[in-house]
Specification:
alpha/beta, 5-stranded parallel β-sheet, 5 strands
């Protein structure tokens, strides 16, 4: 029987960045679902049943902080969450404070642009 592929839900509003992350993960054998914002991402969790969620911080409709909070409040505490943020580089120009990243109920966070090697190493840490 073939080994079950781990599922990763990538919630990212920038299509280029979403495709890059999807490509990296697919090359490693993960099944990848894409959502363009936090609202759609939350809706997909029930049907896609991800083993890991990757959330962008700055998104329309529902940002990464709010989406991670809603996930944790809904009882999805067992799904690891990796937050992607460009916020640290432009902290004074956004409504997304760095302390929000540090207080978010996530397992890891990565600054954009991501280092593919480090990123995949972290994904493997949570998915084996």
């Amino acid at each position: 029987m073939p080994e079950k592929k781990s599922k990763v839900l990538v919630v990212e509003d920038n299509q280029d960045e979403a495709k890059l992350v999807q490509m990296l993960l697919s090359q490693e054998g993960y099944e990848v679902g894409l959502a363009a914002n936090g609202k759609v991402g939350l809706e997909m969790v029930g049907s896609f049943k991800p083993d890991l969620i990757i959330l962008d911080v700055m998104m329309p409709e529902l940002d990464g902080f709010s989406a991670s909070k809603k996930l944790r409040e809904s009882g999805k505490k067992d799904i690891p969450i990796i937050l992607l943020t460009g916020v640290a580089k432009q902290i004074y120009n956004t409504n997304y404070p760095l302390d929000g990243v540090l207080r978010a109920e996530v397992d890891e966070y990565f600054e954009k642009p991501i280092n593919p090697e480090e990123f995949l190493k972290t994904v493997k840490k949570y998915l084996g």
